[in-house]
Amino acid sequence: MALDKRRRPARLMLALIAAIALLAILVIWTALLIQSGARALINGESRWSRSYQSAIFYADNYAESGHPEDLRLALQALSVPLGHYHARQALDRNPPGLAEARLGFQAGGKSESDTELIIWIYRHFAGLPFISDALASWRDSDDNLLRLHALIAEIVRTRTEPDAELIAAQRAELRRITQSHGPLAQAFSASLMRGEWALRTGLIVASAVTMLLLLLISWRLSRRLLAALHDAEGKFYNAFEQAAIGMAELDPEGHFVEVNDALCRILRYDREQLLGTPLKRYTHADDTDSGNRLLSRLNCGTSRFESFDKRYVRSDGETLWTRLTVSAVRDPGQEQPRLFAIIEDITHARELSDELNYRACHDGLTGLWNRQEFEHRLKQAVQDAHAANHEHVVAFIDLDQFKVVNDTCGHIAGDHMLCQVAQVLRNHLREHDILARLGGDEFAVLLLDTASDGARLAAGKLHQAVRDYCFHWQGRNFSLSSSIGLAAIDRDTPDSTWALQAADTACNMAKDSGRSRIHFYVEQDSATAHRRREMEWVSGIRDALDNARLKLFAQRITPLGDGKGERFEVLVRLTDADGREHPPGAFMPAAERYNLIGEIDRFVLTQTLHILARHRDRLERIEACHINVSARSIACPYFREDVTRIIKQLALPGPRICFEITETAAVSSLHDALAFIAAVRTLGCQVSLDDFGSGLSSFGYLKNLPVDLLKIDGNFIRNIHQNSDDSAIVQAINHAAQALQKATIAEFVEQAEAIAVLRHIGVDYIQGYALHRPEPLEQLLVRLDDRATAGRLAAATEE
Questions:
Q1: Distance CA 627, CA 182 (A)
Q2: Judgement on whether residues 423 and 487 belong to the same structural domain of the protein
Q3: Where is average pLDDT lowest: 19-28, 204-213, 222-231, 280-289?
């Protein structure tokens, strides 16, 4: 702000100089134009007067001799003043006749440029004293001009019947016109010449005044600039000396010419020790070449500014990292530049950066490479296999007893065990093999330049090393084992993601086979193919989530008794990249196995609630919308928070929403299920226990779960009209539900005969293909509205 205030007077002076210069140019240009116009008028008057006298002369000769040639010359000469007269008359009209004026002046012998100049002067500067006086004299001559024109006509008539006395009188009048025209012409020229002299004098005075003003302002400005320069030099010197970073001036060879105290502190040398010595003397040996190249570029002019990180050695031998910035300034007349260097100590920042870089690619617990760095190196290995036809193998290692240690002795013990296992694995690998911790108890190894047989031997050594290791913690011993999956990397490997997924699949197959095993991924193996398809579903689910290809459908839940409204359950379908639609049974197992079910739940919840909000007016026509929630989401407090936040944000009526949780999910984590049920019931929402009857202790847990509805497992419903055992079980469940004041829903109703059996048992709601096939959710909401409208119309018709 203070700097702007100091610069403002200088800027004002520069603006004033520019304004004065522009004004002077404008005034001089205008004056020169007026002067040129006046000269054009003077020249015009000269031609006008000559033509006027010539017309009188030839008219007199014609009066005396009667020769036609004299008459022609008289009329030709008279056309010049008449043209000027008609042009002036056109300009005096309102609006002025510019085209007619141009024709008049050009008929009077004026050039096109003089014509335009005279018109401009006449229109814009006729009020100037000398121009207005000249124009007055011009107008005073109009009577003589018109009389001359008329007199020549009279002479022509007289010559047809010559009359000596009349001709003498006409010749006398010609002499009188000649005598009266002279003073008017002289007055016209005199006025314009006075004006031209005044303009010339004014231009000289204006130029002199302008030069004086410019000199005065330039003098004031130069004083201010010199003062500002001295001030800037003083401040620069103070800043140079008091700066917290090192600053120096160097000669073209890189010797210190001047240094500040901060640089002395950074390098830990006295000023006298530094002055005159080369900067490269203090440069770290590994950075000397870069310093020489820098000086060469700056001195030869290929660069004016250089900045990079550089190491120096202090007087005590300590190495420090600095940020060196050198600028080259070339003074006029000097071939070699002056060099100014800024040296900033960045040792601490460099250490922090190195630490951050280390953390970015290393596991914080074990010090091994982390997942991100391992995937990067795995990608390089795949590229190498494609380019050079090399063979590598990636191994996925999972510790079988890690959860036992973690649950028994706590996370601290688990962390110690992971660090020790990491060291065990590292000790049994080659130096160039890459070992990483991917997360939890999962490790990965990239066996470089290793064929399948060699990889099996290496994996066997790792597997045995883990078995031989015994973890000791607070007097307790734990034996460990590992499941290892291997996948080959060769020129046929699609990409690094495929390779890691293949090793992960092989590891999972080793665990499924009883753990503590090694499994090599083989594409043609049926179990491998099944697990591979699951992994492909993982990719497909992620792609569908990212590209909004999960679609919401709904199936009606129809009441069997009176007094109950219609419900519907929201179902999800996945549309793949080729446009094929897949039911949840195809992809949900993979989603649950690979922990994607939570993302799907969150998508379904958010989309469903927003759709209900858009169709808020239709909610009164349904009893409830059922939304499925997985066990993982039930156990997630953030999901419960999302449910509460979105319902409150959209102001949706809680009683119109029913969350379905499976019996298995509720029983496996009763505490989480109770917390979720309590949270949604606070909002007024209902809860339905899905797949009821599938568990071994269904009735035992029922009294502890405050749910509103029981959805009976479809395995008991599908053939209920043919199987008396199923009928008895459903009847028992329905009876228990009624005793506990809970409504029942029978799902998988696919035959019309089953409806009659369920109605007889007394089930409250039924759901299945026999009643309704799933359709898009928003379409169902519109159809519900259409059905309600049709019902009202039918009732009105009956009335």
A1: 115
A2: yes
A3: 19-28
Residue 408 lies in a domain: yes
pLDDT at 798: 41
CB 158 within 8 A of CB 167: yes
302 burial type by CB count under 10 A (0-12 exposed, 13-18 middle, 19+ buried): exposed
Cα(first)–Cα(last) distance of the chain, in Å? Answer: 85
Residue 748 and residue 731: Cα distance in Å, rounded? Answer: 16
Range of 559's domain?
A: 542-795
Query: Cis bond leading into 96, ω under 30°?
Result: no
The two tokens of residue 336 are 């070699």
Parallel/antiparallel/unpaired status of strands 305-313 and 442-447: unpaired
> Judging by DSSP bridges, how do beta strands 775-776 and 550-559 pair with one another?
antiparallel
What pLDDT sits at residue 411? 87
Report if residue 233 sits inside a domain: no
In which residue are the tokens 């000027």 written?
84
Query: Could you give the C-alpha distances from 637 to 644, 665, 675, 676, 690, in angstroms and in order?
Result: 11, 15, 9, 8, 21
In tens, the pLDDT along 409-422 reads 888 999 999 999 99
- What mean pLDDT comes out for the span 356-380? 93
Task: Identify whether residues 731 and 605 lie together within a single domain.
Answer: yes
Per residue in 682-693, pLDDT (tens digit) is 999 999 999 888
Confidence check: pLDDT of 596 > 80: yes
Question: Can you tell me the mean pLDDT for 168-184?
Answer: 75
State pTM to two decimals. Answer: 0.45
- CA 25 distance to own-chain centroid: 49
**Judgement on whether residues 200 and 257 belong to the same structural domain of the protein:** no
Q: Are residues 279 and 412 in the same domain?
A: no
Asked if pLDDT for residue 518 goes beyond 60, the answer is yes
Asked, for residue 292, whether it belongs to a domain, the answer is: yes
The rounded distance, in Å, linking the Cα atoms of 151 and 257 is 100
Cα→Cα distances 693→217, 589, 712, Å? 101, 21, 6
pLDDT above 70 for 288: yes
pLDDT, averaged across the chain: 82
Q: What is the CA radius of gyration of the chain?
A: 53
Whether the per-residue pLDDT at 539 is higher than 50: the answer is yes
Across 604-622, average pLDDT: 92
CA 439 to CA 396: how far, in whole Å? 12
Pick from 476, 591, 494, 568: which is nearest to 771 by CA? 568
Specify the pairing of strand 581-582 against strand 567-575. antiparallel
- Other residues' Cβ atoms within 10 Å of the Cβ of residue 370: 20
Give pLDDT, residue 761.
95
Residue ending a domain, choose from 522, 557, 586: 522
Number of domains in the chain: 4
Q: What's the chain's length in residues? A: 799
547 phi and psi, to 5 degrees? -115, 20
